[in-house]
Design a protein that fits this description.
- It is built from three helices and six strands.
- The strands form two sheets. Strands 1-2-3 form a three-stranded antiparallel beta sheet. A three-stranded parallel beta sheet has the order 4-5-6, covered by helices on one side.
- The radius of gyration is 14 Å and the shape is globular.
- A hairpin with a 4-residue loop joins strand 1 and strand 2.
- By secondary structure, it is α/β, with parallel strands linked by helices.
């Protein structure tokens, strides 16, 4: 977590490698424009990953939710009203990771 005084902006990096930026004066509103972009977020079925996905959708983007918990992942995807797709993934299984990423890339190739 870092703070940039001139812009009054907080940066939060998460394990998924996504950078989310929130304006101090507009907490909860993303200042990035994700229009036309699809972002993969691991662990987005709940917690910090889900909040990151919300910020991306608020910024106009679409989200690919990768999570082990299928029930919560499907529910989270539905909350984003057509701006998210869920794929079950086991990050501890490299073969599964390769298969899921290959599927995601094929289905989201723009």
């Amino acid at each position: 977590l870092s703070f940039a005084c001139e812009q009054i902006v907080y940066f939060l990096t998460i394990p998924a490698g996504v950078l989310v930026c929130f304006d101090y004066k507009r907490v909860g509103k993303t200042i990035f424009d994700f229009t036309g972009k699809t972002i993969i977020v691991t662990g987005a079925a709940q917690g910090i990953g889900k909040e990151t996905a919300k910020g991306i959708v608020k910024g106009g983007g679409d989200v690919v939710i990768l999570d082990l918990n299928a029930e919560k992942g499907e529910a989270a995807a539905k909350e984003f009203n057509g701006h998210a797709d869920f794929y079950k993934i086991d990050l501890g299984d490299s073969k599964n990771c390769r298969e899921v990423i290959k599927t995601v890339c094929a289905e989201h190739d723009k």
